[in-house]
Specification:
Shape: globular
Strand order of the largest sheet: 1-2-3-4-5-6-7-8-9-10-11-12-13-14-15-16
Largest sheet: 16 strands, antiparallel, barrel
Strand content: over 45%
Protein name: DUF560 domain-containing protein
Oligomer: single chain
Signal peptide: 1-22
CATH architecture: Beta Barrel
Structural class: mainly beta
Organism: Corallococcus carmarthensis
CATH class: Mainly Beta
Distance between the termini: 4 Å
Number of domains: 1
Number of strands: 16
Keywords: Signal
Order of helices and strands: HEEEEEEEEEEEEEEEE
CATH topology: Porin
Length: 351
């Protein structure tokens, strides 16, 4: 573990002190560098009549630092990520992404616990520059090792730099439950609701003469997942998202199914695979808001990704990756396809 994490974790853990047992520290550092071939660097849609998307080379780097301090009754956990991508020809798609999360919790007896958490993500460059900030208080209930329940109440602020009419803020509530059927099989369910308030006035619905006032959305997410941990690691998650708005054209419904798998192959090779299927529906027939994707790639589309990793030393892995993202807009006959090939190394240092 990087010793520079110690002062931060120690300072954060002091307010929860009082335990008789000395704090235990854990941490890790990880860095990844890759050379990428991007088949659709500008992320363009095609109608079939115009020339296809343009391919470009890029360099990608990602650094991750994690730390955990655990005392008699208190625990503090921190994570920070810094990633950058540099293109050869499409400099306007260069990106710099930072993300961090911090959580502190205190045990109240053997079954209950309370805590606070905060997270932030900032993306600069490219066509989707934004800042996403959130904080919440939570309570946990874990009567035994099989069941864990977390309830949270918090606030969120989102800033979309290309179009500030999409900025919003508001309160959020959420719940997450996990039940371990056996050491290898786990089920989880989750739900979240958020109230989003915007600056601009809402667009009135056709035939309605009165103004609806400022735009307000209700964002609901609910889903369930299954995880298997054995010779093969598998996970499957379904999520439903509904954004209900008082502004015409802003309501959207989305279904999303995600599956992932990891397996050991001969010659110390590990195969990781992930696939996603999505279905979106817009009850008003149109969707006027800019497409905001709060992830690294175009996971708002159907996707499939594969990665092969093999250790070349005790701390360094060689990695080869491929990803495919695609979607189609039937109303205007536009399609989107993007493939990214990558090769690189990952270095890790863990205490």
């Amino acid at each position: 573990m990087d010793r520079r994490l110690f002062p931060l974790l120690f300072a954060l853990a002091l307010p929860w002190g009082g335990g008789a047992r000395a704090a235990e520290w854990q941490g890790s550092l990880r860095g990844t560098g890759r050379v990428l071939v991007d088949s659709n660097a500008p992320r363009d849609f095609s109608d079939g009549a115009t020339p296809g998307p343009s391919t470009d080379l890029a360099l990608s780097a990602l650094g991750v630092a994690e730390g955990r301090g655990t005392g008699e009754r208190a625990q503090v956990v921190g994570r920070y990520e810094l990633g950058a991508r540099k293109y050869v020809d499409y400099a306007n798609e260069d990106t710099l992404v930072q993300a961090g999360a911090l959580e502190g919790s205190l045990a109240l007896g053997t079954e209950w616990g309370v805590g606070a958490e905060a997270h932030a993500k900032d993306r600069r460059g490219g066509s989707r520059a934004y800042s996403d900030l959130g904080t919440s208080l939570f309570a946990e209930y874990a009567p035994d090792v099989r069941l864990a329940l977390r309830m949270r109440l918090g606030a969120r602020r989102f800033v979309y730099r290309p179009d500030h009419t999409a900025d919003f803020g508001g309160a959020e509530v959420g719940v997450l439950a996990r039940y371990r059927l056996s050491p290898r099989h786990t089920l989880n369910v989750f739900g979240e609701w958020g109230s989003r308030r915007y600056g601009p006035f809402a667009r009135p619905f056709p035939g309605v003469s009165t103004s609806p006032g400022r735009r307000q959305d209700g964002a609901l997410v609910a889903g369930a997942g299954y995880t298997y941990r054995g010779p093969v690691k598998l996970s499957l998650t379904y999520a439903f998202q509904e954004v209900s708005s008082n502004s015409f054209g802003e309501t959207a419904l989305r279904h999303r199914l995600t599956g992932s798998a990891g397996v050991r192959l001969p010659w110390r090779v590990t195969l990781l695979a992930q696939g996603t299927l999505g279905l979106a529906r817009y009850p008003d027939g149109i969707f006027l808001s800019p497409e905001i994707v709060l992830v690294e790639e175009d996971e708002g589309q159907d996707s499939l990704s594969l990665k092969l990793a093999r250790p070349v030393s005790a701390r360094v892995d060689l990695e080869v990756s491929w990803g495919l993202w695609s979607t189609r807009l039937p109303r205007n006959n536009l399609s989107y396809t993007r493939q990214v090939f990558g090769v690189g190394f990952t270095w890790r240092d863990q205490d």
